[in-house]
Specification:
heterodimer, A: alpha/beta, Rossmann fold, 4-stranded parallel β-sheet, 22 helices, 14 strands, about 40% helix, B: alpha/beta, 3 domains, 6-stranded parallel β-sheet, about 15% strand, globular
Chain lengths: ~525, ~450
């Protein structure tokens, strides 16, 4: 597994250890790219900051909270309306954001007084909201404002409110990952255990590291509820502040994104003895295994098995329709952190895609370990990629599609590589059985887009067909497929609604009553 | 009946209309050819601004960060500027201009970006890049001062100040557009071409809208050259369309190089476009040609179809960059509409002395409010709790939930407009912009009438 040197990066030799190619028969002992080191200035990295990792990734999906950043207005503006974590309370956390609006005079004379005024104003504007998270920024960290003291002062004066403080300035650590850690630890330290849990079921979990992107959490909750499991809290997508204060009451922590939230699970184990179970909501088989594991833990494997069978019967014919048409297509799997390994193996197994490259913006070496172990031979693995390296990789690898962020997706467009949004999704949710079919559908639509096909023509040089007025995706995807696949009556395209979430929210569940004590 | 000018009374911001200065400096820097801005601060200050630009334009732009971390925050981070400049120059061989854009963190720790530029000029650039033309320009844009609007104004000024140099006077004019879209630049250049006026446009951003081409990678970038910027000192005059976005550079050129400046008005609407053309005529002696008389006629014709029948008395709220908001308000008044609330985002104390605002205060014959240092809560609270009734909202996408939650139709105007397709391709300035704005406002109202079944039948016989 030799290190891969990008031509564009020969002048910055320290980059050489950040990329490897997985050779035939090689495993991780041959080489592993460096990870989670400071970025080289001026390299045009895609990384963000620790404030963003704390506030934007983990803090803000909490739905019933005033999210107030103590600093100049930009940090707040930037982390507002740039993600798709929805909630079942009319998306309060998406719609409203708060900045203390620090100005020059506050830098000079301190901003604690105005922060207090800010907090009171915000609660006054939204009298129905009694919870707040305060985020430190570079500016408030550097001037040394004691945000915790201000928060305590307000809580003493307004006993009906509760305030959480997250001290994660942008400059803390190489990437947003530092912020994930900080907010995890601050939450368990300051908030968990401060409210008594309301236990209504026999089997109680915290669902951790799940951010409800386009409704992922809702679709996964459906399975838990069908198994009769009470989801005491979700950390943090669609999660409620007070529910998360009661995390200590769960029997099990079910962890989805280990990159961003394993810290709190580990602490919950140490402090409260709650075991951690890593699961995976992406892909039929990983999801089935996950549900079985959860079922096994509580001794309700039969319930898990029933869901797996029902869901597989409902959705497998649709997934297979896409798998037949995606077989052998090349993917650059370029997400932020954990999707690198959540997706690498399973998109190959279940959709037939070949992963030709993985990268991670803020992942650590253990994310790369898992990702490289699960991707195809010959794949190029890149840590902390930068603009020129990404372009060089795409030109060399000629992928059929790339899964990445919004802005790198615009770069890919110009190289005529279709992109799907790996962070916010195109038309998600992508978790759960139905979600996984939606993901396959989006990949299919992107790869077989008739407009994408037209982008390869040069009308000044190429022979242009003059007898074709249109193309459909299937005219492009089905030409080389065997007849029995094309005419299969078992397989079908996705049959769900544009927005599938309301149907999940409106369901009722048979096992949700806590068993009376006498029956135990 | 009066026009009241007030300040937001709350100290904090609930849903910001604006972002901070470094964003404005970055927006200016992407307008220059062979230029990549190096933002001295945390990585988020660049990553999110790049995301914002890519949301608005559906394109990617190159901007770099010095990636300041803890040790830099404690011990100073100028070494990261030095490395950043070197890495950019090594890896981007065409690169000539690197503005070094400060942020709140690096201003607070007191990093001397002017000093490091001198050091680099005397050291690294001499030793390693002696055969290359490289310009390092420190731009101070602390986030705790002003807003993205003043950041843009400062950066345009700093670029012009750095490059402008007197050689031989020429017959060109400088046109400083302010924070506009590619569609606006196309419309402005069209007016100049009709007048046969040769102009240096700051900035040439039509290529922000870049194609997917058969031969590979095309990076969206502005096209204003170093020569363009040097030549601004030789022009026969400067017109800065926006007082707060480029006005500072126009004043500099007048003071330093005796290039006469006309600042404003923002050519939104027929009347302000007329003024713009008159100013061009005065400055260059070139007549206004028949073709523009005809173009103006087409616009008047289009507006006449809409004003009394549909637009009259419609109550509007407008928010965004101050020059844009004022220009839109003036145009709405000409269209017989009633701008009820104008929200000007930042705390620039000069707004209250703006003659256009004074004119509104003196002449508006109904209750209008102009709110300085405003946020979106100033608008939402008036609608939700104070009975403000509106027929239309004009502003950028960040205010979309007010329109959605209170069922008020909204036309996206300004920056950013990421929740509507392709708006950066259409002008709001000039006669073409006047027509586009009025027709889009009307179509927005029509769709709302049909959706709400509110006299939707009136369109049967239009």
């Amino acid at each position: 597994m030799p290190y891969h040197e990008f031509e564009c990066s020969t002048c910055i030799p320290e980059r050489k250890k950040h990329a490897v190619i997985k050779g035939p028969g090689e495993d991780l002992t041959s080489a592993l790219p460096e990870g989670y080191l400071n970025t080289i200035p001026g390299s045009i990295t895609e990384r963000g900051c620790a404030y963003c990792g704390a506030k934007h990734v983990i803090g803000t999906p909490m739905k019933d909270v005033i999210h107030l950043s103590h600093g100049p207005v930009g940090c707040t503006y930037d982390t507002w309306q740039t993600k798709r974590y929805i909630s079942d309370n009319d998306n309060f956390q998406l719609k409203y954001t708060y900045a203390s609006d620090m100005k020059e005079k506050h830098i000079v004379f301190g901003a604690e007084k105005m922060l207090k005024q800010n907090i009171i104003e915000a609660f006054k504007a939204f009298p129905e909201i009694k919870r707040m998270t305060l985020y430190q920024t570079c500016a408030s960290a550097l001037i040394g404002d004691d945000i915790n003291a201000v928060a305590q002062e307000v809580m003493d004066e307004m006993p009906e409110v509760d305030i959480f403080v997250c001290n994660s300035p942008g400059f803390r650590g190489p990437s947003q990952s530092g912020g994930h850690h900080t907010i995890n630890i601050a939450w368990i330290k300051d908030k968990v255990g401060t409210i008594e849990p309301k236990i209504t079921g026999d089997y109680v979990i915290n669902y951790v590291g799940e951010y409800n992107i386009q409704g992922d959490e809702v679709i996964m909750q459906d399975y838990f509820k069908r198994m009769g499991i009470q989801v005491l809290s979700t950390f943090t997508g669609n999660g409620s502040y007070d529910d998360l204060r009661a995390m200590h009451g769960a029997h099990l922590n079910v962890l989805e994104c280990a990159r961003s939230a394993e810290y709190i699970c580990n602490e919950l184990r140490v402090r409260y003895g709650i075991p951690r179970l890593d699961i995976d909501g992406f892909g039929f088989e990983p999801l089935a295994q996950s549900l079985r594991k959860v079922g096994l833990f509580f001794g309700i494997e039969d319930r898990a098995q029933k869901i797996i069978e029902e869901e597989t019967a409902r959705w497998k014919p649709e997934l297979d329709w896409y798998k037949e048409r995606l077989m052998g297509k090349k993917v650059c799997l370029w997400p932020g952190g954990s999707k690198l390994w959540h997706w690498a193996h399973v998109i190959h197994e279940e959709m037939g895609l070949d992963v030709v490259s993985v990268y991670t913006k803020f992942g650590h070496q253990q994310d790369m370990e898992k990702g490289i172990a699960r991707c195809e031979e010959g794949a190029l693995a890149i840590d902390d990629p930068n603009e020129l390296e990404s372009v060089e990789a795409m030109l060399k690898l000629k992928p059929d599609i790339i899964f990445t962020g919004k802005r790198p997706g615009e770069v890919a467009k110009k190289i005529r590589v279709p992109y799907l949004n790996a962070h916010a999704y195109h038309n998600g949710p992508y978790k759960g059985y139905e979600g996984w079919v939606r993901f396959a559908r989006d990949i299919y639509n992107a790869i077989y887009s008739p407009i994408h096909q037209l982008s390869f023509l040069d009308i000044s040089k190429d022979e242009i067909p003059t007898n074709q007025g249109f193309a459909t995706q299937q005219m492009l995807s089905d030409t080389t497929l065997p007849e029995e696949v094309v005419s299969s009556r078992e397989m079908r395209q996705y049959t769900g609604n544009y927005d599938c979430i309301p149907d999940y929210l409106n369901k009722t569940y048979p096992y949700m009553q806590k068993t009376p004590a006498s029956e135990n | 009946m009066s026009c009241e000018v007030m300040n937001k009374e709350r100290v904090g911001v609930i849903n910001p209309i604006f972002t901070c200065q470094p964003c404005g400096a970055q927006f200016a820097s992407i307008g220059i050819k062979d230029c990549i801005g190096l933002v001295h601060g945390g990585q988020g200050c660049v990553m999110f601004v790049r995301l914002l630009f890519s949301q608005h334009f559906k394109e990617s732009f190159e901007l770099a960060s010095t990636s300041v971390h803890e040790e830099g925050a404690v011990f100073g981070a100028l070494n990261r500027v030095e490395t950043g400049v070197d890495v950019l120059l090594m890896r981007y061989p065409h690169l000539k201009v690197i503005p070094i854009i400060s942020t709140c963190s690096t201003e607070i720790i007191g990093d001397d970006i002017d000093g490091v530029v001198i050091k680099l000029n005397e050291g690294l650039l001499q030793e390693k890049y002696a055969d290359r033309e490289v310009h390092l320009i420190p731009i101070h844009s602390p986030s705790f001062v002003g807003s993205m609007v003043s950041g843009y104004d400062v950066a345009v000024h700093d670029f012009v100040k750095y490059f402008s140099k007197k050689d031989k006077p020429n017959l060109k004019i400088n046109l400083i557009t302010g924070w506009v879209n590619p569609g606006d630049v196309t419309a402005l250049k069209h007016l100049l071409a009709e007048m046969q006026i040769d102009a240096t446009v700051l900035f040439e951003i039509e290529n922000f809208d870049s194609p997917v081409m058969p031969d590979g990678n095309h990076v969206s970038h502005g096209n204003t050259t170093i020569e363009d910027l040097i030549g601004t000192a030789d022009a026969q005059g400067t017109i800065a369309l926006n007082r707060y976005e480029g006005g500072k550079a126009a004043k500099f050129l007048q003071k330093r190089w005796d290039v006469p400046a006309i600042i404003g008005p923002t050519p939104i609407g027929i009347r302000n476009t007329d003024t713009f053309l008159q100013n061009l005529k005065t400055m260059t002696g070139k007549p206004i040609p028949e073709s523009l008389v005809r173009e103006r006629g087409l616009a008047i014709d289009a507006l006449t179809d809409l004003t009394h029948l549909f637009l009259a008395d419609k109550k509007v709220a407008i928010y965004g960059n101050a020059d844009l908001v004022i220009g839109l308000a003036e145009f709405c008044l000409d269209l017989e509409m009633k701008p009820m609330v104008l929200l000007l985002g930042d705390d620039n104390s000069a707004y209250k002395d703006d003659p256009r605002i004074k004119a509104l205060q003196e002449n508006v014959d109904y209750d209008m409010q102009i709110i300085m240092n405003a946020d979106f809560w100033e608008l939402e609270n008036r609608i939700k709790n104070e009975g403000l009734e509106l027929d239309l909202i004009l502003g950028h996408s960040k205010g979309r939930f007010i329109s959605i939650d209170y069922n008020i139709p909204m036309l996206r105007v300004g920056f950013p407009t990421y929740d509507r397709a392709g708006l950066h391709r259409y002008p709001v300035v000039g006669y073409a912009g006047a027509t586009w704005l009025a027709e889009q406002m009307a179509n927005t109202l029509f769709a709302d009438m049909e959706y709400k079944k509110n006299k939707e039948w009136i369109l049967n016989v239009w």
